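step: validate -> pass
step: tokenize input -> pass
step: predict -> running
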Amino acid sequence: MIRRLALVGALVLSLAGCGARVAGDGDRGGAGSGGGHYPVTITNCGQEKTFDRAPRRVVTNDVGITEIMFALGLADHMAGYVMPDDKGDLDGVPWKDGYRRTTWLSKERITRELVLDARADLVFAGWNYGFSEETGLTPAALDRLGIDSYLLTESCRNGRNGARGVMSPLDALYTDLRTLGKIFDVEERAEKLIGGFEEQLAQAAARAPRGKDRPRVFLYDDGRDKPLTSGRYAGPHDIITRAGGDHIMKDLEDSWTTVGWETVVERDPEVIVINDYGDTTAEQKRAFLKSYPPLAGVSAIRNDRIFVLQYVDLVESPRNPAAVATLASYLGRTGS
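step: predict -> pass
step: emit ->
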């Protein structure tokens, strides 16, 4: 935690021109650096904010959030990103140039000290994607330092005991693209991205199983005693559903959450999708699933139907539509 409180006053003064404030608080003022486009008012996780100009020193947390900025062509508005080095291939993406042009600030967790050192004027993160009451890094804490925040829509809290998610995962992605497009005056770029994604999804739908052929699919993130998986508000729900699968945890009104193995066995998935990231490799996860006695009778294990996607494919990110296409091809080949 930051100790250098003497910096706060100077930072507040230096960031006073950032331009975001709760809508309705005082005079809207004149146009910002974007001419007639500003000021703009947006809604993010239920809160309205007004921006007098586009933020210029954004710090992002995690790979999916960072790539949303890159996909919108906003690398020049970034002070840097925070990301572990276990989040998969960063070179084989259309916006890989953003990584070359932007500073990798830390491979550890994001902190207030890091944000202050980067002279950030906005932090783009999410609940459990960098923001947490336990660590003390929250939008409210940043606001007290004169630094704005933008919450990843996938992570919006929905009022059910800290559960996250207020809309379907791809709608959350499109919402963030459109909202950030408005904040940074790149709305046409955002709509072009979304149009391309919709075309990609339509092509995937043509290959995806339908009706009675839709296999039951379980997303396995990690965990031995209890598996961490996806509810209806995290990326895997739309990825599985749009790829032609029947997501067996679609009734969970949360994003990423744990369940009991007995629930998995009872719902008998025909395909298991592994989330590939972290210290435990996808092959180690596969070996555990195939050797775990309670799962021996599950259809996916008996028929060895286990498919691997990367972490960034499965959290909210501009890679989600490609993940739908990849999984649709696999499910179509299985003939389930």
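step: describe -> The first helix runs from residue 6 to 14.
step: cleanup -> pass
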